[in-house]
Amino acid sequence: MTARVLLIEDEPNITEAIRFILSRDGCEVTTLADGVGAVAAVRAVMPDLVILDLMLPGVSGLEILAELRADPATQGLPVMMLTAKGQGRDREAAERAGANHFMTKPFSNDDMRAAVRALISG
Amino acid sequence: MSNSPSSAPASLTGSLIRERRLALGLRQGEVAQSAGVSASYLNLIEHNRRRVGAEVLERLAAALGTEVAILSEGAGGALIDDLRAAASTVPGVQPELDRIEDFAGRFPGWAAVLAAQHHRAAQLERAVGALNDRLTHDPHLSASLHEVLSALASVRSTAAILADTEDIDPDWRARFHQNLHQDSERLAHGAEALVAYLDGPDTAVDAGLAAPQEEVEGWLAARGWHLAELAEPGGFERLMAEVAGLAAVAARSLAQEFLRQSADEARLLPDAVLRAALEGGEADPSVLAQRSGLPVLAVMRRIALLPGSVAGLVICDASGTLLFRKPVDGFALPRFGAACPLWPLFAALARPMMPMVARVEPAGRAARVFRTLSICETRLPQGFSGPDLREAAMLILPDDAPLRAAGPVLALGSSCRICPRAACPARREPSILTEAGVQ
Which of A66, A118, B15, B438 is surrounded by the most beta carbons within 10 Å? Predict the structure, then answer.
């Protein structure tokens, strides 16, 4: 699996763990720790997959997703949402906003790898 | 039908006399003789076919070795009201309301149990509402849970990496060990704080998890919602020292500001002056405002914080966010999130300096009517070029007029989620409660 993944997550230890497991699978992982400037970073990197935390400082994951979906250049980009809540209204809102997949914290590394693989090849 | 309020107590009295006599094992003739009435007259009284006068009732009470109050209309009237309220709470069941006095008279013990159960149910309903409100709207609880889940996510993923990656680079291994250590500390603290929070309000405050405003209100509630010491020499300093002991820094700062404001207001309208005015029949905050030179809103605060005051008070800013809540029994105030949009408080917010008086009936099993006085005041702290800041207050007073006797009553709630008025036109979201027993 060689793909470029942009990980937008504010928890440094989660970022480090995800970067490690995906890098070992051959992904090139770029990271960003807050929501401000996230959309610009996506446009600059144009990754194969965006992994986006729902609760980010600055701008929420939902707003970033909405902005990505509104731009023709990024509207087809696969986006995986990371959420600590896993269900309920936030998830429904992200589904409506066009998220491709949800990963609920705490996730298993195998689930993360499998989901990334599926999103990149799909 | 005998279920109108005026006839109920009289007929209950007869039944109670009969119950009491039978319980003592006395014959009608014996009791009639010691009370100085004829046996046939007592028989009519006992079967609720004659009203009993105060003097005869007194003699009968003495003959039966009991108090007039036990047999009198007042005590029974309250019981009948409770039974009537209990009867309306179970949908689909139609108790024999026309025999309610008979029931209370013949089975006073069972009637008291039923009334007590009704009160207990209402109490539990309020507790469920408050807890639900807390769990769904408490930003602090939500933030703590998020913190714990984040740390857990990191621990799970990192531990799996260490367990599954045999050829891991020693630097990475050391780094992940360090991360694990950090996250396990975070988890431990987060879990401790959550347990403390869920354990009870006191420990929640200690753990610094209560909202600052909530902590200040908790402090005020614990002192009976008054700051009588402000009138004493050195009282202000003592109170300032007291609030220095609050757990959260933000709560301390809020409380200090509140004390400074209260001290200023108490200087212009001291407790003694306010009490004399209220006892003299002058309870209109706008009149008291003119006399004292205080804004109307400040007078409302003074009324609510007067020692022994039964008045509740809510204050909100222009966004509708509640800044101050002194609750009143029977008028639930939401702890978090938005309140009922029908509150006159919010109508006042839209019309600055327009006083609004309303009679309101909050949703709940113990239907009580309150009189609310609401007003909105504006400030221009940055002059004409800056924003106008609004603050609205609603003083909640018990309404002495009989239920529905003095004009229309506005039906309202505390917040939609715990409000049982299903058909309310202002409803924002479904409620967890049913409408049973409210109408």
Answer: B15
